[in-house]
User: Fold this.
Amino acid sequence: MESSGARAWRVALAGVTAGMALLAGMALLAGAALLGGCSSEPDAAQSTAAGSPTTAASPTPSAPAGGSVTPAAPVELRLAFAGDVHFTGRTLRLLDDPESAFGRITPTLRDADLTLLNLETAVTGRGTPQPKRFRFRAPESAYAALHAAGVDAASIANNHVLDYGPVGLRDTLDAAARAEFPVFGAGRNADAAYAPWLTTVRGVRVAVLGMSQVHELAAQWKPTATRPGVAMAFDADRATAAVRAARSRADLVIVFMHWGVEGSSCPSGEMRSFANRMARAGADIVLGTHAHTLLADGWLGRTYVHYGLGNFLWYGDSKSTDSGVLRLTVRGRTVIRNEFLPGTVSRTGQPVLVAGAARQRIEDRIASAKRCSGLAAERS
Assistant:
């Protein structure tokens, strides 16, 4: 039979054991809370350098009281596109103050998640003039002007980036690297020319390719394994492979073309054929410049196409002073909203948006151009 002293000792020992267990449990909970507080997530809006895309992590959706998980809403990106830009004649003077070079159109360009246009010039003070009628070149401050206007990257896949030969193209690329301004569509060799510019915008991986379908000097300007040049649409197999490769690396694929017949608001047969090829290869958006006049937009299946954005910041009248900014809203791979803001190239060469009768005239011209575009009014 247990004595009263032994019984008291046993009760006291049980109390100590229970207290120690309680303290151990509290320590474990505190450690778990500390570890949880040290975790972090990458910024969902991070951007990446060309050639090294990453995907920003998304927060894990929380489970409501019923136990099911609510998926995060798809990200909607706002994109802006504009036409041909160079700095020569009256527009060269605008580089005296790069911060204001684009003038009143600047807020429209800045008001997008991603803004792209065509830089229609070599950026060089050297090189050999090529055997052609029109030759354009600009100083390095051109990149500062683009950056100040809110432009994120520029296509140089056009018929002017080699106006001063391979030396001029290399200078153009070197100046872009010094300015930390992305350009695409031309390079030091074929692999670089056909490579996409890759960036991540609000967690969406975007690939942008530039290509030219202009025949002038195309054979001399095409890149090789050892020669710099412009990515040419005429090498259809290489162009298709480039888009398919970009498709495997990005959520959204954009092809920025330089094509068309100068002064014509209707796409040529080779434009229409190549647009179809790009759509089949996996491009989500195909658009272009070069005709110096506005063309129309529409759909090839689920691929959005705009055949021509006209001149933007320009030294003269060319074929037309009609201009503007294309704004697209994209959810996933799909363009869910498209809007063209009509404008005109002003006396300074700067584009300005228009209203009233001037806007109606441009919209009427675009409506007329839709009749020869061969594009569907709705995606399918």
About this structure: The chain has a mean pLDDT of 87. Residues 76-370 form a domain with the Purple Acid Phosphatase; chain A, domain 2 fold (CATH 3.60.21.10).
